[in-house]
Amino acid sequence: MRARTLGLLLWPLWTGADEALVPLPATELSRLAPLLVHSEMAVLETSPEGRPRQLLLLAYAAAPPEVTREVVIHPERYPRFVRNLSKSEVTRQADGSLVSHWEMKLPIGHFGGAYRLRLESSGAVDIRSLARDNHSRWEFLPAIGGGTVIAEYMHYQAPKQNLILQRLISRDPANETGMALATALVLAKSVLAEAQRQAQARGVRTAEPVAAKEPDFHSLLSRGALAIIRSTPTGGLRDVSIVKRVRAPLPRLLELVRSPDRWPSFIRSVTAAKVIERNAQGMVYEMEVDGVILSVQTRYRMQHLPEGADSLGIGGDLIGARMRWDLQREGEETLVTLRANHQLGESSFLLRAMIGYEPLFEHGANVGVSVVATEAIARQAMGK
Description:
The chain folds into 2 domains: 11-223, START domain (Alpha-D-Glucose-1,6-Bisphosphate, Chain A, domain 4, 2-Layer Sandwich); 245-381, Alpha-D-Glucose-1,6-Bisphosphate, Chain A, domain 4 (2-Layer Sandwich), CATH 3.30.530.20. Helix content is 26%, strand content 38%. It has helices spanning 26-30, 33-36, 65-72, 163-171, 175-201, 217-223, 250-257, 349-357, 360-381, and strands at 2-3, 39-46, 52-61, 85-92, 98-106, 109-119, 125-129, 135-142, 148-155, 225-231, 237-246, 270-279, 282-290, 294-305, 308-316, 322-330, 333-341. The chain has a 17-stranded antiparallel β-sheet that branches. A hairpin with a 5-residue loop joins strand 4 (85-92) and strand 5. The protein is globular, with a radius of gyration of 21 Å.
């Protein structure tokens, strides 16, 4: 496997010019707290080709809203708990906002930028990059029972001057959505851990959140695809899921997810795929992927499910990789779920090194790969 420059993906970059961020009802998001204790979620609103329009990252902090907010509004303290962030110099402006100039040091280079942070009267925090008019908004919602649901809304556009990012996007525009979520996870999960540490240090006990009402996923899915990122008790990646409503019949989607030999014709990062063996229960196939920052060749065993397919990497670069497609009829639409762990951390020395410097990169990279696959299957099924 070959791996190329990765560090530029590890720091949040928000964009969206002056377009307003459109929030979801706070009470609806607060109900998700019990589900967020062991996972993060994201709502991905994208263009027809898969590029991000608005993204929403949801996470749970076992700390009160005021403690969690305090962590975010002091960027001068970020180097204490954000891995590899070597500098965050802050100056207070006449209007009460803060301007932070930051630098991040990684094995493959140094990166930096500047942004303005403003605490609003509502308690939300607004962040805009000085260089690219990037934009994100953090809300701190009290969870029923205890703790805080963090809702981070963002607009994102990859910097045009970075050739590697532009090559990724030209390969498949959906890569930009994966990049946005990958970078946002790094800061958000660092904030969660620090808020929980500060709450414990202050002797603040936070009860487990409770579900007062069943959460409504239909309203979330009406805005876009839903990403779920699950971690192990030690913080490692367990797996990710991408859930998306697709306006196409289930049989058409079923044929696509069970036909890896067709994937190179519409999944741009899949350069080759061939079926080695086939029977009534499934098949064995080989697939080559060139995603600009990595190139891999893996042999998979696919097991047919009643309404889906389950693939396991059994040879090559990504042994143990798992991709499970589940389909469900919903009227004229089909609910598509891809649950996966692509084992990217086991594929090369460089990727292992990068994950060693920032373990959350594995979470974000798996989301990015899964978003690209799901968007490509959806577009093909809809004839786009």
